[in-house]
Amino acid sequence: MAHDHNPAHGASGHGEHAGGHHVMPLSVYWGVFLALVVGTLVTVWSATIDLGALNVIVALVIATAKALLVVLYFMHVKYASKLTWLFVASGFFWLLIMLVITMNDYISRGWLL
Amino acid sequence: MATTHAVAPAANGEKEAKSFWSDGYGWKSWLLTVDHKRIAILYLISVVAFFIIGATFAALMRLELATPKGDVVDSETYNKLFTMHGVVMIFFFLVPSIPAILGNFLVPLMIGARDLAFPKINLLSWYIYIVGGALTLLAAVTGGIDTGWTFYTPYSSTYANGQVALAAIAVFITGFSSILTGLNFLVTIHKMRAPGLTWFRLPLFIWAQYATSLIMILGTPVIATTVFLVALERVLRIGIFDPALGGDPVLFQHLFWFYSHPAVYIMILPGMGVISDVIACFSRKRVFGYSFVAFSSMAIAVLGFMVWGHHMYTTGQSAYASMVSTENTMLAAVKVFNWMATLYKGEIHLTTPMLYALGFIGLFTIGGLTGLFLGIMSIDLHVHDTYFVVAHFHYVMVGGMVMAFLSGIHFWWPKMFGRMYPEWWGRFAAINIFVGFNLTFLPQFVLGFMGMPRRYHYYPEEFAQLNLLSSAGAALMGAGYLIIFVYMLWSVKFGLKVGANPWKATGLEWKIQSPPTTHNFESIPVVDEEAYDYGRGHAKHGKEASVVR
Amino acid sequence: MSADHTHAMPAGVLPPVSHHFEDLAQQEESEKLGMWAFLVTEVMFFGALFTAYTVYRNLYPEAFMLASSSLDWKLGGLNTLVLIVSSLTMALAIRGAQTSNRKVMLGNLVLTMVFGATFLVVKYFEYAHKYHVNLMPGPTFDVAAFGEHGPQARIFFSIYFAMTGLHAFHMIVGLILMAWIYKRAAAGHYTPTRYVGIENAGLYWHFVDLVWIFLFPMLYLLGAHTSGLSGGH
């Protein structure tokens, strides 16, 4: 079937609601895609420059930004319920707990207390 | 008032009323069931079976420890015994017990739902549990493991002989049972509460299950990955924990305890949920400080993830990290005061569930307080890896969790089976177990403080008397468990038949027939009552109840 | 035929609401929440490996940089782009379901699978190469190739294979899932008012992409500023 019943198809405006569900405009998807590709290229390029300790930070910041784009737009979290936000945030918060407290040990090994 | 219709109680001698028990006979109707109540019964049978296996290992250990010499088994066998005792009791009894049996049975009933959100995944959970359990037992009989349930590297990953890889895979698989149960409960409690059943009208048992489920889904994946890495190391020798390559054994411990500390809250929170419901019912009073108990359950789930370093004070983590861990550990909440306040001026009924609940309060307090001692780095350095630790965790796990489990099983038994257990024998066994338990483990605090290390099967003469006392206590306690097992089995066929609400308790589960029908409710109830509306004690909003029954 | 959105799918194809749910809304909300809860477990599952990586990288920075340079960043980068495209096509497939556009939905599902398979093929070549030059973690590891950093380089490769291996396993599961979703989509199961199934599959797929977004710089680009982008071997 080649019919498409959504008049907003292909338009760059905001998507209409089909049955209460938010339809992301195509422009948003393609925009996010482009941003992800650019982000990847920038990541590779910045990795070739010796920024010392900043290399890690730059790479992580870009990766986090890419991740946010995927989560918010591809995974529709931007338009999801508060409960979904809570679950998503909790997942990353707990990951942070594990990383931070573990690294807390290693970083402080040399400290004299 | 709830609008469900309670079926008239079946009188003695009548034909069995229609219930989930009579809804299909034969293997297939049970092994392919998606009814949460039948799955709960499947878990009841298998969890109890594993308890018996774990208890057998314990019996052999206490037999050995009755005398100072190592004359019953050799060292390696003893190491395998305590390892299997730990693995079986923790992963196959303590973690699943209340959630998988009482949680599965009661969560839908308490919230006015017809089943959990994902019934087939519920059944899958059970099968995964069985497979994991079978593999663990296979590991035990084909060489065993002697690493301790804690699997510390590099002993477990490189040097141990035995079935470490198989056991690691078994634990890995079993973890998914836990994860799926937790996931099921979380979604069910969020999405399937009956109309009018707001969060703060829920029984505290549900709050406890919710907090437990959070821990299950956040913590279990980490241990899954960790034991999987150990298995990889054993089989492929990848060298991730091998010190010869620069691998760090302490990393294993960080990852292991990230789950295993919150795991103790997986084990105790459901018990606390049971206690809240039981104490309220047999004091005929609302739980004092309902909101506080609900919030503290959630707080435990969160804070419990930040203190695992207190298991690692002596193993090489930094002093700074140890200090932070001590600080965080001191923040743990204490709900015992709420239960005491609930009891105060209540109309106390000393039924079997209540006896266990009271025992829980006393014993868990002792266990919990000794946990605080251990949580303080300076004290722990003296008692780490001694019998003080062993006594502490048995007080919270057996004196706490098992008591709560028995309390809950007795409380909801008539609902599950439509028949009452014999009350006199119930009280007798409860007292028996209480006395036996204290005889077993109280001496161990002293032993630990005197310096007796754990995980040894022989010891100096000076520890002999207390060890003998401890072993005698274990025998007494074991007799108590046996008595329960016998009369519970007896009651399934011959116990007094009961109606919907033999305890006159509040809660949606008591408004339907005992045992429930397959679909639980004829029509989904609409709730407009507060929780624990016993007519006594302060309502959630601070108003004194006007009716005193 | 009526002008409503579901005219492409014959009535009666959609499964009824499961009996334990009150209505479709409750069922769909539960299914979505269940998927998110599952993804939270996956975050922690991979998270343990991220933690191991972070610990060892902090302990052995030079060894990790050196070992990382022996990975082929071009293939890694290609795979990153492949996954990003597959996420786009996945999102477009769901949009096709939302807008009752069967061709868009099915076509993009196929593309998603094609890109997913491409990822795995590239991965296979990478692994095969590592096998040939004795860089598999284990006793066959060519410690000497990394001089004094040999043993820790072996740890790097243990982590590399554990993380990318686990990720690849999730990709394979994802492909199987997509094939199943395609079958259901072709049978008309997804309509603008009822598409939780394909949406959930999309969530899983995007998650797997997310993991790789972090894996790529962490594993492939550590040594890029030292040796330049030599392309690894």
Question: Which helices and strands appear, and what pairs or packs with what?
Answer:
The complex is a heterotrimer of chains A (113), B (549) and C (233).
Chain A: E1 17-18, E2 21-22, H1 26-47, H2 54-74, H3 82-107
Antiparallel strand pairs in A: 1-2
Chain B: H1 27-31, H2 36-65, H3 75-94, H4 97-111, H5 119-141, H6 155-159, H7 164-191, H8 204-236, H9 249-283, H10 290-303, H11 319-329, H12 336-343, H13 352-375, H14 377-383, H15 387-417, E1 419-420, H16 423-450, H17 464-494, E2 496-497
Antiparallel strand pairs in B: 1-2
Chain C: H1 24-59, H2 61-69, H3 73-98, H4 102-132, H5 150-186, H6 196-220, H7 224-227
Helix pairs in contact in C: 1-2, 1-5, 1-6, 2-5, 3-4, 3-6, 4-5, 5-6
Explain what you see.
The complex is a heterotrimer of chains A (113), B (549) and C (233). Chain A has helices spanning 26-47, 54-74, 82-107; strands at 17-18, 21-22. Chain A is mainly alpha-helical. Chain A has two domains: 1-80, no CATH class; 81-113. A two-stranded antiparallel ribbon of chain A has the order 1-2. Chain A starts with 16 loop residues before the first strand and ends in a 6-residue tail after the last helix. The model of chain A is unreliable at 1-20 (pLDDT under 50). Chain B has one domain (34-501): Up-down Bundle (Cytochrome C Oxidase, Chain A), CATH 1.20.210. Chain B has 17 helices and two strands. Chain B is mostly helical and 549 residues long. In chain B, strands 1-2 form a two-stranded antiparallel sheet. Chain C is an all-alpha fold and 233 residues long. Chain C has helices spanning 24-59, 61-69, 73-98, 102-132, 150-186, 196-220, 224-227. In chain C, helix 1 (24-59) runs antiparallel to helix 5 (150-186), helix 1 runs parallel beside helix 6 and helix 5 (150-186) packs antiparallel against helix 6 (196-220). Chain C starts with 23 loop residues before the first helix and ends in a 6-residue tail after the last helix. Mean pLDDT of chain C is 90; it is low at 1-9 and 228-233. Chains in contact: A-B, A-C, B-C. Chains B and C meet through helix 7, helix 8 and helix 9 of B and helix 1 and helix 5 of C.
